[in-house]
Amino acid sequence: MRNYTTGLLALCATIGCSGDGKSDLEELRDECVEACSNYVGFIDRCGFELGASSDGYCETQCDEEAEQTDVGGCEDKYAALIDCRGSLSWADAECTEDVMDSKIAACAEKLTAWAECIAAKDPGEDDTGSGTDSGGSDDTLPDLLGGAEDPGGCEEVLGEEVAGAASMFFGEYSLVDDTWTGEERWLIYANETWRAAGGEDCEVVWSAEAFETDPPACSGCDLGLQATLVLNEGATTCDLDIVGGADGAVAYGIDRRSDGSATWYFTTSMDVMGDGQHIDTAVNFLTDPSCRWW
Fold this sequence. Notes:
- This protein has 294 residues and is an alpha+beta fold.
- It has two domains: 17-119, no CATH class; 145-293, no CATH class.
- The chain is 31% helix and 28% strand.
- The protein is built from nine helices and eleven strands.
- The chain has an eight-stranded antiparallel barrel with strand order 3-4-5-6-7-8-9-10. A two-stranded antiparallel ribbon has the order 1-2.
- Strand 8 (261-266) and strand 9 form a beta hairpin.
- Helix 3 (24-46) runs antiparallel to helix 4, helix 3 packs parallel to helix 5 and helix 4 packs across helix 7.
- The chain is globular and about 70 Å long.
């Protein structure tokens, strides 16, 4: 990556500078570092996994974001995102993943708006993406959903029949310029008791966008993704009052192997999330089934 701090200083004559000689975009970069440092302080204080060394983490992340913002002409969207991040209070935040996820989700819409702006940059520009040797060169990602069916095994709790469902999560992302876009689905298979009460198979669908982060410390991980999930109510067939579903944000680590297989991890816990396949510019996952009770 080129020295972006130097590049930002050269922009003063064209996009304006603050009184201290910094361009507007460089000011945003500095605000990004400050907000990010508060977040990293929370991660360190609470003993969570950042997925990378904290030394220089924020400077690297914010330099990359500023460069993407400049290339995409998305300064207004980035300013709104940084303003939101800066408003988050991490110093006294409770050390739970729910608190962390809720704070990150508070800026999800602004992150999505910025990512969409970045993805809409000149499609004629040459962009090689992550440059990772992913081991696959086929044009088509293997279809994981083609074989997805009701896994069963979710009829009883302690010998008593209870309304519920077997469920799995599926996701697929494709690299477009510097942004990974796609969708995630929660596949829900109603058990007999729930069907008798009017329940049926359904799915919750999220539109997904993610930007790359440094590969986290999970075993073999060569790709990190910070994803924003926006509920797609038009494609969702489940009753959300029963099963739930909302916008959110999540960080993944992905181990892409030379045989085309891939294992996904939650960055905050380093727990395995699911397995899937990958090609040069796309990756997917399907989780193991689990039971849900209503």
